[in-house]
Design goal:
Largest sheet: 8 strands, parallel
CATH superfamily: Metal-dependent hydrolases
Radius of gyration: 17 Å
Oligomer: single chain
Number of strands: 13
């Protein structure tokens, strides 16, 4: 279902309608076209997401989006901020997922400030691994600037996660993904994050693929729909068909099942979901009400961005 009336806010969009937000040569026309398609799919606003790469490339990509944002009124209306996902994430196999391992690095306040400066105030959210942030210096630095700090692609101990929360971390990025396929049965990052659900707003990729619907329903009923947010983690194939796509320097294959895989099939690489598709999954496969879906896809993301 599509509508011209904005119904959704998406905190994690890597690309859309054939447009990769992580490309080095993103054009104003392409970003505008993606925003037109998002608005046509009922999306009020997004956070354009820039993922891990070498720092100068991340800087340039962030600056490019900020520059276009400053000159195009439609882009300003749709792109509510930039979500920087990495490069300060775990280098443990399985945790970094589709992020290029060679560019993953420990938390660094000076390096992060370079990325913030490139965004000229547009960076609103940062995903990092708390266990890579010694003394939680970067968490504190970001929280002091009213930037949302989210754990993701990480494997902190319970004590490290609590320490990060005390320092200003308030969210968890796509829980259940960005972690190894095989985990210890009981002591794992999913259980640790869920145990702190009253102190976190937890995001889930609610496409029915990244997390099977039965598990997604269990997680959301445990967190409660007041403390959770549904995100697409969309990449360029969202709203398109099967084919070959890219996220930054990486090739991504999308087959007839519309699942975005790395070419070697080792991991998922973003999703092809749109917000209307995700709302259908939440309604038809997990049984949530329209009021619950509105909280997950509109009210809660607006609230954390200060637009509620």
């Amino acid at each position: 279902m599509t509508s011209n009336t904005p119904q959704f806010v998406d905190l994690q969009v890597n690309g859309y309608a054939g447009v990769d937000f992580n490309q080095d040569n993103l054009s104003a026309a392409d970003l505008r076209r993606a925003c037109e398609r998002l608005r046509g799919d009922g999306v009020a606003g997004i956070q354009a997401t820039i993922i891990t790469d070498e720092l100068p490339r991340m800087e340039a990509r962030i600056k490019r989006i900020a520059t276009i944002h400053g000159s195009d009124s439609l882009v300003r209306d749709v792109v509510w901020g930039i979500h920087v996902e990495g490069p300060f994430i775990s280098d443990t196999p399985g945790c970094y997922g589709a992020h290029p391992r060679a560019a993953v690095r420990p938390a660094d306040v000076d390096a992060m400030q370079r990325l913030l400066d490139a965004g000229d105030g547009l960076v609103r959210m940062v995903t990092l691994a708390p266990e890579r942030d010694t003394g939680m210096k970067l968490v504190r630095h970001l929280a002091a600037q009213n930037i949302l700090v989210s754990a993701g692609h990480c494997d902190p101990t319970l004590d490290q996660l609590r320490e990060a929360i005390d320092a200003g971390l308030t969210m968890f990025t796509h829980l259940g993904n960005g972690c190894p396929t095989t985990l210890p049965r009981h002591d794992n990052i999913i259980q640790r994050a869920l145990s702190l659900r009253e102190k976190l707003t937890i995001c889930f990729i609610a496409d029915g693929i990244h997390i099977p619907a039965v598990a997604l329903g269990n997680y959301l009923r445990l967190t409660g729909t007041d403390r959770a947010i549904a995100v697409t983690d969309a990449m360029a194939a969202a709203g398109c068909g099967p084919g070959h796509y890219r996220i930054g320097s990486q090739n991504i294959d999308v087959c007839d099942d519309m699942v975005a895989w790395a070419p070697d099939g080792s991991h998922l690489a973003g999703s092809t979901a749109t917000m209307p598709t995700m709302a259908s999954v939440l309604r038809e496969q997990t049984g949530f009400s329209d009021a619950d879906i509105r909280r997950l896809t509109l009210d809660n993301p607006r609230r954390v961005l200060g637009r509620g």
